[in-house]
Amino acid sequence: MNTRTLAILIGLLALFSGSAAMAAGGGITLQHANVNVRDIAASQRGAKLFVNYCLSCHDASYMRYNRLAEDLGLGEELVMENLVFADAKIGDTMEIAMRPQDAEKWLG
Question: Is-above-0.70 flag for pTM?
Answer without folding.
Answer: no
